[in-house]
Amino acid sequence: MIVLPVALVLVPMVAWLCARRFMPRFSATATGVGLGLVISPVSFGLYGTYFLGPFGIVTGMIGLVSLLFHGAPGFHITRFLGLVPPGVVEGISHLYIETANAIVWGVVYGVLGLVIDHVRRSRVAL
């Protein structure tokens, strides 16, 4: 179960490779969107490695810090929209929260990638 969220790391790598080949001017944008779509589940998967022993403690702590940062917007958005009931988050509520996180962080990292692409293009023109 832990391997699946951590395997999502392949999504931004594939986005980068495809963008480099088919739209090189927007490679950072595509990579940023791909990273934003999976950053919250990957953080959750890294946090799950905490219970795997000595190696898992380091990756688990990295996942915990990342999850505390990347998990909050989706939770607050779904609570505001009434999709998550008050109390313990369980069941289908995780899907709602992760979907909201994917939208939020996909936009944020995509815009950051767009800025990077813009800076690269303006520097190349020198």
What does it look like?
With 126 residues, this protein is mainly α. It has one domain (3-124). It is 79% helix and 0% strand. It has six helices and no strands. It has helices spanning 3-7, 10-22, 27-48, 54-70, 72-81, 93-124. The longest helix has 32 residues, at 93-124. The chain is globular, with a radius of gyration of 17 Å.
How are the elements arranged and paired?
Layout: H1 3-7, H2 10-22, H3 27-48, H4 54-70, H5 72-81, H6 93-124
Helix pairs in contact: 2-3, 3-4, 3-6, 5-6
Mean pLDDT: 87
Form type? globular
CA(first)-CA(last) distance: 49 Å
Helix and strand run: HHHHHH
Tally of separate helices: 6
The amount of helix comes to: over 70%
Whole-number count of domains: 1
Number of strands: 0
What ranges have pLDDT less than 50 throughout 5 or more consecutive residues?
Answer: none
Radius of gyration: 17 Å
Q: What structural class is derived from the secondary structure elements?
A: mainly alpha
Strand fraction equals under 5%
Largest sheet: none
Looking at this protein, list some descriptive labels.
6 helices; single chain; globular; 126 residues; mainly alpha; 79% helix
Describe the structure in brief.
With 126 residues, the chain is mainly alpha-helical.
